[in-house]
Amino acid sequence: MALQYLRMGLVMNKTKITREYHGRDYDKLPTKDLIAYLDRSLPKDNTVRGQALGLSRNSYASMKRRTEINWTTADRYAITLGAHPALIWSDWYKIVN
Fold first, then answer.
1. Which pTM was predicted?
2. Minimal CB count within 10 Å: which of 22, 40, 52, 85?
Protein backbone atom coordinates (compact mmCIF):
# COMPACT_ATOMS: atom_id res chain seq x y z
CA MET A 1 0.00 0.00 0.00
CA ALA A 2 2.79 2.43 0.85
CA LEU A 3 4.40 1.72 -2.54
CA GLN A 4 1.16 2.69 -4.28
CA TYR A 5 1.12 5.99 -2.42
CA LEU A 6 4.73 6.68 -3.39
CA ARG A 7 3.92 6.03 -7.04
CA MET A 8 1.05 8.53 -6.85
CA GLY A 9 3.36 11.15 -5.31
CA LEU A 10 1.71 10.88 -1.92
CA VAL A 11 3.61 10.82 1.35
CA MET A 12 2.27 9.03 4.42
CA ASN A 13 2.85 10.88 7.69
CA LYS A 14 1.61 8.50 10.41
CA THR A 15 -2.17 8.73 9.94
CA LYS A 16 -2.22 11.63 7.51
CA ILE A 17 -1.64 11.32 3.77
CA THR A 18 -0.39 14.49 2.10
CA ARG A 19 0.81 15.40 -1.35
CA GLU A 20 4.50 16.25 -1.53
CA TYR A 21 5.20 19.28 -3.69
CA HIS A 22 8.43 20.65 -5.03
CA GLY A 23 9.10 23.80 -6.98
CA ARG A 24 6.90 26.83 -7.28
CA ASP A 25 3.12 26.94 -7.14
CA TYR A 26 2.58 23.23 -6.66
CA ASP A 27 4.52 22.09 -9.69
CA LYS A 28 2.49 24.15 -12.17
CA LEU A 29 3.87 25.67 -15.34
CA PRO A 30 2.50 28.71 -17.17
CA THR A 31 0.32 27.89 -20.15
CA LYS A 32 1.47 31.08 -21.89
CA ASP A 33 4.90 29.53 -22.51
CA LEU A 34 3.30 26.60 -24.35
CA ILE A 35 1.12 28.99 -26.38
CA ALA A 36 4.19 31.08 -27.28
CA TYR A 37 6.00 27.92 -28.44
CA LEU A 38 2.99 26.94 -30.54
CA ASP A 39 2.84 30.48 -31.99
CA ARG A 40 6.40 30.02 -33.23
CA SER A 41 5.86 26.56 -34.68
CA LEU A 42 2.23 26.05 -35.78
CA PRO A 43 -0.59 27.98 -37.47
CA LYS A 44 -3.06 29.69 -35.12
CA ASP A 45 -5.82 27.19 -35.91
CA ASN A 46 -7.18 25.51 -32.74
CA THR A 47 -7.88 22.28 -34.61
CA VAL A 48 -4.28 21.96 -35.85
CA ARG A 49 -2.83 22.85 -32.45
CA GLY A 50 -5.19 20.48 -30.67
CA GLN A 51 -4.20 17.63 -32.96
CA ALA A 52 -0.51 18.41 -32.45
CA LEU A 53 -1.03 18.07 -28.68
CA GLY A 54 -3.27 15.02 -28.97
CA LEU A 55 -6.38 17.00 -28.00
CA SER A 56 -9.66 17.88 -29.64
CA ARG A 57 -10.26 21.46 -30.79
CA ASN A 58 -12.53 22.10 -27.79
CA SER A 59 -10.10 20.57 -25.30
CA TYR A 60 -7.29 22.72 -26.71
CA ALA A 61 -9.46 25.85 -26.44
CA SER A 62 -10.23 24.95 -22.82
CA MET A 63 -6.56 24.31 -22.00
CA LYS A 64 -5.61 27.62 -23.61
CA ARG A 65 -7.86 29.51 -21.19
CA ARG A 66 -6.05 28.10 -18.15
CA THR A 67 -3.20 30.08 -16.66
CA GLU A 68 -1.20 27.01 -15.55
CA ILE A 69 -0.88 23.32 -16.25
CA ASN A 70 0.53 20.48 -14.18
CA TRP A 71 4.16 19.58 -14.90
CA THR A 72 3.28 16.01 -15.91
CA THR A 73 0.75 17.27 -18.45
CA ALA A 74 3.29 19.81 -19.68
CA ASP A 75 5.84 17.03 -20.11
CA ARG A 76 3.34 14.95 -22.12
CA TYR A 77 2.50 17.93 -24.36
CA ALA A 78 6.18 18.67 -25.03
CA ILE A 79 6.94 15.05 -25.88
CA THR A 80 3.90 14.90 -28.17
CA LEU A 81 5.26 17.99 -29.96
CA GLY A 82 8.67 16.30 -30.28
CA ALA A 83 10.41 18.82 -28.02
CA HIS A 84 12.08 18.66 -24.64
CA PRO A 85 10.03 20.55 -22.03
CA ALA A 86 13.02 22.77 -21.24
CA LEU A 87 12.74 24.21 -24.76
CA ILE A 88 9.22 25.40 -23.94
CA TRP A 89 9.56 26.27 -20.23
CA SER A 90 12.89 27.86 -19.32
CA ASP A 91 12.37 27.09 -15.61
CA TRP A 92 11.60 23.40 -16.27
CA TYR A 93 14.48 22.04 -14.17
CA LYS A 94 13.62 24.31 -11.22
CA ILE A 95 10.06 22.96 -11.22
CA VAL A 96 10.71 19.23 -11.56
CA ASN A 97 13.80 18.92 -9.32
1. 0.71
2. 40
